Amino acid sequence: MHAELRHQGGMWVLRDLGSTNGTTVNGRRVVGAALVREGDQVGFGQMTFRLTGVRPASG
């Protein structure tokens, strides 16, 4: 496992799980955890994804 994305306290939190190649949000390396929002670019090693449809979970 490389990273996890969880909904906590009305926000989305991306946590690096000790990956070798690193996790980034908008080009900045994640050390521990980072908040993520709609439109953020999340990188896992050399792969980059843009978050879309990231909205608070109901309930």
Properties at a glance:
Tumour Suppressor Smad4; mainly beta; four-stranded antiparallel sheet; 59 residues; 7 strands; single chain
SSE order, one letter for each helix or strand:
EEEEEEE
Beta-strand content bin: over 45%
Strand order of the largest sheet: 4-3-6-7
The span between the termini is 27 Å
Looking at the overall shape, the CATH architecture is Sandwich
Please write the CATH class name: Mainly Beta
Whole-number average pLDDT? 88
Biggest sheet: strands, sense, closure? 4 strands, antiparallel
Q: Might you state the CATH topology name? A: Tumour Suppressor Smad4
Count of beta strands: 7
Radius of gyration, CA atoms, in whole angstroms: 11 Å
Shape: globular
Unreliable spans are none
